[in-house]
Specification:
disordered N terminus, 3 strands
């Protein structure tokens, strides 16, 4: 009971901590004073090797009209007369992205994963308390006895009232599935004995 209450208390606290961790960097970025966050727009120039100069990738925050080799590649690795030839080899692309959208998607994703983990923990903690001991289960090596007990186990479920709660319906489906698996195992072992 105490573990369940601590999980109920911990989930809002965990969500607040995650939100704080995600939103704090955005608050610090807005203090810089830029009109747009520096990571939302950029011009990326990929320059291949040229003569004795190795290839390099240049990133710079410039407008879309200034997204070319002359404005982005600084310092220019080639002397003045080779600049034009070097810039013709470079491929520059203007890129835009919304870090706010990325942060929102990550928050939603983490919230869903957190909710699923909480649900799993709830099931792990509560399921043993709710589940009734299965009195009719027998080991597989005693197949004749298990068939007799299975026929006895079916009588109360057929005579009982219709399942009222979701948990009872799920438990009934689980019992049917267990019986099917047991029957399949029995037929596999019977076939194995016939073929031996």
């Amino acid at each position: 009971m105490f573990a369940q209450n601590s999980w109920n208390f911990a989930s809002p606290v965990l969500l607040l901590v995650l939100l704080g961790c995600v939103l704090c960097p955005s608050a610090q970025a807005s203090k810089v004073g830029d009109t747009e966050p520096s990571e939302d727009i950029r011009c990326k120039c990929i320059c291949p090797p040229y003569r004795n100069i190795s290839g390099h990738i240049y990133n710079k925050n410039v407008s879309q009209k200034d997204c070319n080799c002359l404005h982005v590649v600084e310092p220019m690795p080639v002397p003045g007369n080779d600049v034009e030839a070097y810039c013709l080899l470079c491929e520059c692309k203007y890129e835009e992205r919304s870090t706010t959208t990325i942060k929102v998607i990550i928050i939603v994703y983490l919230s869903v994963v957190g909710a699923l983990l909480l649900y799993m923990a709830f099931l792990v903690l509560v399921d043993p308390l709710i589940r009734k001991p299965d009195l009719y289960t027998q080991p597989l090596h005693n197949e004749e006895d298990s068939e007799d007990t299975r026929s006895l186990a079916r009588v109360p479920t057929l005579a009982g009232a219709r399942a009222n709660t979701v948990l009872e319906r799920v438990e009934g489906a689980q019992q049917r599935w267990k019986r099917q698996v047991q029957e399949q195992r029995k037929t596999v072992f019977d076939r194995h004995k016939m073929l031996s």
